[in-house]
Amino acid sequence: DDLLAILDVSQVRALINMGLNQADFPPELASLKQLPNLVKFIELRINLTRPAPSSLIITANNEADAEKLVAIVDEMKQLSAAHWAVEAQKQIASDDPVEQAAGRYSLRMSRLMDERFQIQREGDQLIVFRSDLTGQGGNPMVATATIGVLVALLLPAVQAAREAARRTQSMNNMKQIMLALLNHEAAKKTYPAYANFDAAGKPLLSWRVHILPYLEQEALYKQFHLDEPWDSEHNKQLIPLMPELFLDPSSRFLPANGKTHYVGVMGEGRLFDGSAEGHAIKTITDGTSNTIAVVQTGDTGAVAWTKPVDWKADENNLMGPFDPLHPGGFLAGFCDGHVSFISYEIEPGVFKALLTVNGEEVVNPGAY
């Protein structure tokens, strides 16, 4: 009547570590980054005739690692208890009787879990609960609550792994866009201008539309009326057909919303300088590997992908539009096609230098 599930942590350790290493953990949770390297197996045994799991056992790599695991769990228990105590006291201090009752209940449950959640170590194994241990697995509430605590402990690792996957996908999106820009330059001898223009000098459609043939989107490109603005009756019907690579995977938007997070760097001395003529590689005297062409912005900075609107740097607030989709920074695509993750902590002078095509600044690659 038992169902046994075993997770071999070694099979997912690299992915978890990648996510954890990229995550910005507060100092008090830094020890959680050690977990994947200490655990070998996680075993959950469920008795199908009982209302709660029968056992949960964590096997470490060796006894020394098992001791480290116990220490980390104890540390997290103390942090959790302190957090709940503070929150409960806030509720108890409220003028609302319901809040006060909820605070007292939270305090009792926190103390109960602290008493009941006692991990036992047997060699290299940590017995979180087991049905033959008095007061542990025999209590369905404690067993279920224990799983909840463990999920809470592991959640940062899972979230970090997911964020790493999303950031990798976003980087792949940006790389495809940069490759399309380079292919446009190879075919036309210039990067695309930020838009095409009508006879009166009015911008019509974004450069993102004009690189569609280099993104294997020739059929979509041919549907546009290139002599009409992006929001003409015909062209605006194509906005929901935005290729998915223009959407950051961390966004709340869907492709059908037609909002893109990948915007060109605009302004005098930038790759997209507002003129009807695109830059040739030879005009980028700062070096294509030192010049940013496209940046990734957040949901508030996203624009209709066909609209000839991009990002113009505010000299007084260079980081203004980069509301965080990814912790710690944003992606930037350079004129040579490579993509880098730019930290919000980058020196403003360095970032400003990376935005110009011919500012004659000298930038050390290690500066960003």
Brief summary of the model shown:
By secondary structure, the protein is α+β, with helices and mostly antiparallel strands. The protein has 8 helices and 14 strands.
**How many strand elements?**
14
Whole-angstrom Rg: 27 Å
Which series of helices and strands comes N to C?
EHHEEHHEEHEEHHEEEEEEEH
Overall spatial form: elongated
Question: Strand order across the biggest sheet?
Answer: 1-2-3-5-4
Report the span from N to C terminus.
Answer: 57 Å
Helix content: 25-40%
Strand content: 15-25%
Q: What class do helices, strands and sheet pairing give? A: alpha+beta
Largest sheet: 5 strands, antiparallel
pLDDT < 50 runs, ≥5 residues: 132-138
**Domains, number:** 2
Helical region count?
8
Average pLDDT level: 83
Task: Explain how this protein is built.
This protein is α+β, with helices and mostly antiparallel strands and 368 residues long. It folds into two domains: 136 residues, no CATH class; 188 residues, no CATH class. The strands form four sheets. The chain has a five-stranded antiparallel sheet with strand order 1-2-3-5-4. Strands 12-9-10-13-14 form a five-stranded mixed sheet, with helices on one face. Strands 6-7 form a two-stranded antiparallel ribbon. Helix 1 crosses helix 5 and helix 3 runs antiparallel to helix 4. About 2% of the residues have low confidence.
